[in-house]
DNA sequence: TATAAATACAACCATTTGGTTGTGCAAATT
DNA sequence: AATTTGCACAACCAAATGGTTGTATTTATA
């Protein structure tokens, strides 16, 4: 198994989606992200590491505090993929029916 | 760890995205999905099980063959989430600058 | 200076993931 | 009737995931 680090992986976990949502409003430090998250600072730190490796956040050291900014540009890729799939899907009609009709003939 | 079965999980894996893309064009049986996929039928079957549990596909038995149809409605949820995040993010400007200015004053 | 706060780093853990092979069975085909 | 085809089920595997605790280090603050 390969350690996949892409947008899809980034948003696959609900905790990471929560983090992204929080950061969408503006930069926060780790403590602020931990607040009301229900998981430990170390747990959050691991998710931030993943998000960083996915290029979804930028970390800025400021004294002893570390600020996280979201980088949401990559989410475009997800929307593009979804739209492409849905476009194809919209044109799929009657394919199953056609198949069923064909097998009925045999 | 909880076994998460949702759209985000469904599209997190590249093989599953490939399957969804193939199925977007219309229903296929397992053999057709396996073709050129580079992985075994059993491997594909496992992904189909996941996709089924996520509600992303519908399985139709037809003799000894099993046909898979994509159900892409749920992808709306992903797009909605992304748009919500991006909307917030679009309004985030100057928050980090403001913070940095404040700490500079202290 | 002593202490508290913010973080980093490592080890540990159970479960999940994403595959594989191997076996067996039902449905078509020859 | 024998064989092939399509699939289900189980066991196995290494690696990844999503957490935890425990310890050390650096930076502010009282």
User: What composes the largest sheet of chain A?
Assistant: 3 strands, antiparallel
Q: Which overall shape of chain A is indicated by the principal axes computed on the Cα atoms?
A: elongated
**Overall CATH class of chain A:** Mainly Alpha
Sheet/helix structural class of chain A? alpha+beta
Strand order of the largest sheet of chain A: 1-3-2
Oligomer: homodimer
Count of discrete alpha- or pi-helical segments spanning 4 or more residues of chain A? 6
CATH superfamily of chain A: Winged helix-like DNA-binding domain superfamily/Winged helix DNA-binding domain
Count of strand segments of chain A = 3
CATH architecture name of chain A: Orthogonal Bundle
Distance between the termini of chain A: 43 Å
CATH fold type of chain A: Arc Repressor Mutant, subunit A
Helix content of chain A: 55-70%
Please provide a written account of the structure.
Two copies of one chain form a homodimer. The first copy, chain A, has 106 residues and is α+β, with helices and mostly antiparallel strands. Chain A has one domain: Orthogonal Bundle (Arc Repressor Mutant, subunit A). In chain A, 57% of the residues lie in helices and 13% in strands. The first copy, chain A, has six helices and three strands, in the order H-H-E-H-H-E-E-H-H. Chain A has a three-stranded antiparallel β-sheet. In chain A, strand 2 and strand 3 form a beta hairpin. The mean pLDDT of chain A is 89. Chain A binds chain B through residues 4, 8-9, 11-14, 17, 20-21, 24-27, 60, 62-63, 67, 69-70, 72, 75, 78-79, 81-86, 88-89, 91-92, 95-96, 99-100, 103, and chain B through 4, 8-9, 11-14, 17, 20-21, 24-27, 60, 62-63, 67, 69-70, 72, 75, 78-79, 81-86, 88-89, 92, 95-96, 99-100, 103. Chain A binds a DNA duplex (30 and 30 nucleotides) through residues 1-4, 13, 15, 29-31, 39-43, 45-47, 50, 63-66.
């Amino acid at each position: 198994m390969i350690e996949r680090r892409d947008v899809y992986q980034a948003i696959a976990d609900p905790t990471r989606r929560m983090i992204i949502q929080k950061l969408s409003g503006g930069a926060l430090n780790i403590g602020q992200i931990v607040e009301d998250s229900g998981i430990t600072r170390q747990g959050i730190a691991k998710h931030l590491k993943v998000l960083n490796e996915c290029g979804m956040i930028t970390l800025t050291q400021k004294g002893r505090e570390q600020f996280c900014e979201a980088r949401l540009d990559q989410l475009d890729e997800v929307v593009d993929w979804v739209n492409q799939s849905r476009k194809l899907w919209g044109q799929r009609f009657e394919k199953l029916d056609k198949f069923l009709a064909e097998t009925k003939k045999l």
